[in-house]
Amino acid sequence: MKKILLGLILVSMQLFGLQLGEIPSDVILDGKNGGKVDGNAWNSSMLNGKVHVLFYVDPDEKDVNEAFADALKVAKFDKTKYASVAVVNLAATWKPNIIIEALLKKKQEKFPEALYVKDKKKVLVKKWSLGDDASNIVVFGKNGKVLYFKNGKLDKNEISKVIQLIKDNL
Question: What structural domains and CATH numbers belong to the chain?
Answer without folding.
Answer: 18-169 (3.40.30.10)
